[in-house]
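Weekly sync, protein design subgroup
Attendees: M.S., D.O., the rotation student, P.L. (late)

Item 1: inverse folding check
M.S. brought a backbone from last month's batch and wanted to see whether the design step gives back something sensible before we order anything. D.O. pointed out we never logged the input encoding, so this time it goes straight into the notes. Structure tokens as presented (494 positions):
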């Protein structure tokens, strides 16, 4: 019998490899087709907008070497412009089209820059910026019980939170963040600081079973959370959520109540879930359920639920999160520093779960730099999955932008550069030794760029950073206030 000439070259032992290679090529072709189709659709939409009127009136026209809208996925539009009127984006088009179609009061040319959506830090604790470096290189339990909680019990106040929020907000703006989610006491003080800085925030008011300086029991926490929502329900910049701390610090009754209120008030639930292996093992020993399984039985798993950290997830937990449409916020640098465990980003992404990116607080991360967070997330995902193709650069950028917006329930407003969305934008100067040469600007941003290369930042059309300098914040006062708190906390440690 004559042998098939193909199989004379390819042995049975590597048929699977050959098929996988063909499948990979097929997927690559399909991805390329999707990209070009999306890009073409984007161009058609732009042309349609420009054809609606002879001239679009804009307050500001920003021209950049690359405009990276995030949607469509992977697009890097060379020599493009973004037009802003008031708080919103009114046009995105080529520089050639802009010359004839857009009339702007102000024009800004960024010839060496990439213009991206403002970065979204989907989880943090602003006030803990004042605890940066105060308890480094110790395990999570020791870190909390011996350092953080005693200091919080003694010093957390309106003044502490306001000073910490100012410091954190300044750092975030300087590194390109225009929206952040915060979970901490006295959230009204974070709101005041955010409004003064004109930055966008989602305040996840904490809920606990035990008393703190801010509230005495779960009912009081929830009452204060609902009041905060009422106070800012019409704000463009201040958004609210419920923030039950973790499954092990909140009992069933408050969680059930929060599930009902979140549905009635159309609010997200932001919660630390499966942060460590110990949290999961303790839960299993207690009643034979993982924290995710318990939350499922209490009715909390839904598109409203945002699970922060999400390490040590079994297949059943992943399936439950996928079916419910819940979100995950990955905090890679905090997890690494506290040795909390690994979030299996590649596996979760394949399951269809929306994964956002957060820094956590400075006490466990030591910075609020979302650019470095993207790099760490991308590299860590590859190592955990043992797959160099896991979490490519464009997906890391998505985690820090549109995925974060979706997790916070703000996907229709921010997270991508699109006509009709708020003008939350960050410009990054790629004319630097560490980002030269440039073959792919998205890869360059994720793998080579430093936060110091952020040159311009806008939130809701208002410029917050210009040529690397703040336009509105009093940095000397922020530093002075931080130094005062450093002196107080240093005394307590001694």
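Designed sequence read out in the meeting:
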């Amino acid at each position: 019998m004559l042998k098939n000439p193909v199989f004379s070259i390819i042995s049975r032992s590597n048929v699977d490899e050959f098929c996988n290679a063909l499948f990979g090529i097929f997927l690559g072709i399909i991805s390329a087709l999707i990209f070009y189709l999306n890009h073409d659709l984007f161009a058609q939409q732009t042309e349609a907008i420009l054809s609606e009127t002879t001239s679009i009136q804009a307050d500001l026209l920003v021209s950049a070497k690359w405009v990276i809208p995030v949607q469509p996925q992977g697009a890097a539009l060379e020599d493009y412009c973004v037009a802003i009127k008031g708080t919103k984006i009114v046009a995105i088009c080529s520089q050639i089209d802009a010359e004839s179609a857009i009339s702007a009061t102000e024009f800004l040319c960024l010839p060496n820059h990439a213009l991206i959506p403002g970065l979204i830090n989907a989880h943090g604790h602003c006030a803990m910026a004042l605890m940066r470096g105060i308890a480094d290189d110790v395990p999570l339990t020791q870190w909390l019980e011996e350092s953080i909680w005693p200091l919080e019990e003694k010093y957390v106040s309106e003044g502490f939170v306001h000073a910490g929020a100012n410091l954190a907000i300044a750092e975030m703006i300087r590194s390109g963040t225009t929206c952040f989610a915060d979970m901490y006491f006295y959230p009204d003080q974070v709101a005041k600081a955010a409004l003064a800085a004109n930055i966008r925030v989602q305040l996840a008011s904490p809920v606990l079973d035990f008393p703190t300086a801010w509230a005495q029991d779960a009912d009081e926490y929830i009452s204060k959370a609902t009041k905060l929502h009422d106070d800012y329900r019409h704000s463009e910049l201040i958004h609210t959520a419920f923030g039950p701390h973790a499954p092990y610090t909140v009992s069933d009754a408050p969680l059930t109540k929060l599930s009902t209120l979140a549905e009635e008030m159309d609010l997200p639930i932001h919660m630390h879930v499966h942060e460590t292996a110990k949290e999961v093992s303790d839960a299993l020993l207690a009643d034979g359920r993982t924290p995710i399984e318990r939350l499922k039985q209490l009715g909390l798993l839904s598109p409203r639920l945002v699970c922060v950290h999400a390490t040590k997830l079994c297949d059943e937990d992943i399936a439950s999160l996928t079916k419910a449409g819940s979100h995950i916020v990955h905090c890679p640098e905090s997890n690494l520093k506290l040795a909390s465990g690994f979030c299996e980003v590649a596996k979760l992404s394949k399951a269809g779960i929306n994964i956002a990116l957060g820094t956590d607080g400075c006490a466990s991360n030591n910075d609020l730099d979302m650019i470095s967070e993207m790099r760490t997330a991308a590299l860590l995902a590859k190592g955990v999955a043992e797959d160099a193709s896991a979490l490519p650069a464009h997906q890391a950028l998505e985690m820090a932008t549109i995925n974060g917006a979706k997790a916070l329930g703000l996907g229709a407003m921010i997270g991508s550069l699109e006509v009709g969305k708020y003008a939350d934008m960050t410009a990054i100067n790629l004319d630097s030794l560490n980002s030269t040469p440039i073959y792919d600007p998205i890869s360059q941003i994720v793998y080579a760029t430093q936060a110091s290369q952020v040159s311009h930042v806008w939130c809701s059309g208002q410029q917050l950073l210009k040529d690397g300098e703040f336009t509105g914040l009093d940095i000397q006062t922020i530093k002075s206030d931080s130094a005062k708190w450093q002196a107080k906390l240093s005394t307590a440690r001694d």
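Discussion: Confidence is low (pLDDT under 50) at residues 1-32. The CA atoms of residues 356 and 404 lie 5 Å apart.
Action: P.L. to compare against the previous round before Friday.
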